[in-house]
Amino acid sequence: MRISLPCPPHSGNSTVTPLNSRLHTAMAEEELDLEFYDNNSGDVDKEFEEWKQKFEKSYESPEEEAKRKKLWLQTRVMVTEHNRKYQRGMVTYTMGVNQFADLAEGEHPCGCMH
Question: Can you give the residue ranges of the Cathepsin propeptide inhibitor domain (predicted)?
Answer without folding.
Answer: 48-108
